Amino acid sequence: MFASFMINTWTAGTIVAVVAGVVGFFVVIRGSSFMAHAVPHGAFAGAAGAILIGADPLVGLGVFAAAGALTISVLSRRARTDVITALTLVVMLALGALFLSRSSQYSGEVFALLFGQVLGVSTDEIAPMLVLGVVCLTAVAVCYRPLLLSSVLPDMARARRVDPQILGIVFALIVACATTTSVPVVGALLMFALLVGPPAAARLLVKRAPLAILVSLLLTLATVWSSIALAYLSDWPVGFFVTAVGAALYLASRVTAGILRRRQAPAHDR
Amino acid sequence: MTGSVDPLAAFFASPTVHAALIVGGFVSVVAGIVGVFVVVRGQSFAGHALADLGAVGGSGAFLIGIDQVAGFVGAGIIAALLMEIVGIRRIQGRDIATGIVFALGLGLTALFLYWDTTTGSTGNAAISVLFGSLFVIDQSVVPVIVVLSIIALLLIGAVYRWLLMDSLDPDLAAARGVPVRLTGIVFLIALALAVELSSLSIGAILSTALLIGPAATALQFTRRFGPALVASAGLALASTWIGCLISFESYYWAGRSDNWPVSFCIVALIFIAYVTTRIARGLSRRRLAAAPVEA
């Protein structure tokens, strides 16, 4: 399991887990899980288009992820976010269908982009992932306070002259960057599951922001590592394990949070 | 042109097109009507998730060799009930619940598709479940789809008044004694039916377009419920049929031997309609604002 050809897989998985753990926390507190699904899922169309015209799939992916994120945040100004997200996603996917129908040798790679092929990561793929991951985390660190404020107390943020729309755009671009980091290697499905499951579980257990981000990071790492190990042992797709472990973690922390609350409630009464 | 078949005549003569028009017509009307409630209630994510989750049933049915329609519909209803169980009434929490059920379903899809490809030689199973196509629809499923779309409409009709009240003001509805929980469940089941039907016809992912697009467009130019329902159903039907026609005709002008995917044509039409009404509405609002106020 720790043979030399698996080193890249562990490295890539760790990078993805760190990025997803941090960004996912904000996805959960902002309630942007639909966007966290739409951007990675729609961006695969960009990769399909890039392959069609002979460009680097990573570039296509990045362009589509950024374009999708921008469309969602700009068009949402005067309409419901969920409607816009759905429409943007659908248009990107329809373009993907068009690109796919134009090229003939693609279906295996589509499967990889959607569901991930973590066990076949090459060394050349690690460097761009690392760079994008660092960019993403730096962006989060720079915008940390306004991002947190506008996610938790939007009115207060407005009073402090934080423009929620600009922040929305910045956050959408952060999600796009996280997507481009991870989708070529782990697939759209896996990225979405990581952005929502473990961070939501962390949020249920811990309320304070810095600590909750740390817990989210740890849970995401645990999810990724255990999933790679299980996928290696069983030969089943890693995407399945990531989603199953993520859902199990969420369920467990909901039960735990429920028990804790019940134990605390009588104490308050006294 | 001499000697070649008239493209339009070929369109109406083809039995594939007949099936596509009938199935597409039923599915799009149902999706258009259900979609208005989805948009008003802010459940687009659930609608999209249910469409994708049909693929779990589709791929699972592939695996154990049962009917694909049964797989799609069964998975959709189970997923709808799961979401209601996990569900929280606040939109934010509801989206997370949807996301987690959704992710788990997609993970199962990955597993089923993996088993499909390793047990059989269905390399394209992923693509056909995810993207589907109106032009490869199986003639034998037409009656099933028609019956199921009628059931979905009857469910909506049965709880119409409750649904209307609950969609517009949940607190008022609860105060008036509307069984809010039951209404929500019935609606999610009708939604699952509508969405699985369109999943089968234009593909799991792209069915979201029929559900959200026409309804969002209709709600741009009318705020009243009845007219919005009619307009949304009409728009859905029109974009499906015109999309079919464009896709069919693109065979003659696309240059290659391949035509444009029908799902792409339909989605493009729906999106163009939405953006156009958005712009038109923006313009008219600006004109209203700029016009001098008359005494």
Task: Give an overview in words.
- Chain A is an all-alpha fold.
- Chain A has one domain (4-269): ABC transporter involved in vitamin B12 uptake, BtuC, CATH 1.10.3470.
- Chain A has helices at residues 7-30, 33-53, 57-75, 81-102, 107-115, 123-142, 144-152, 154-159, 164-186, 188-205, 209-234, 238-269.
- In chain A, helix 3 (57-75) packs antiparallel against helix 4, helix 3 runs antiparallel to helix 9 and helix 10 packs across helix 11.
- The radius of gyration of chain A is 19 Å and the shape is globular.
- The longest helix of chain B is centred in the middle third of the chain and has 29 residues, at 91-119.
- The radius of gyration of chain B is 20 Å and the shape is globular.
- The mean pLDDT of chain B is 76.
- The interface between A and B is large, with 51 and 55 residues.
CATH class wording of chain B = Mainly Alpha
Low-confidence stretches of chain A: none
Residue share in β-strands of chain B: under 5%
Q: Which oligomeric form is depicted?
A: heterodimer
Overall structural domain count of chain A:
1
Order of helices and strands of chain A: HHHHHHHHHHHH
- Number of DSSP strand runs of chain A: 0
Task: Tell me the count of domains of chain B.
Answer: 1
CATH superfamily grouping of chain B: ABC transporter involved in vitamin B12 uptake, BtuC
Distance between the termini of chain B: 63 Å
Q: Mean pLDDT score of chain A, rounded?
A: 80
Q: What labels describe this entry?
A:
heterodimer, A: 270 residues, mainly alpha, 85% helix, 0% strand, B: 295 residues, ABC transporter involved in vitamin B12 uptake, BtuC
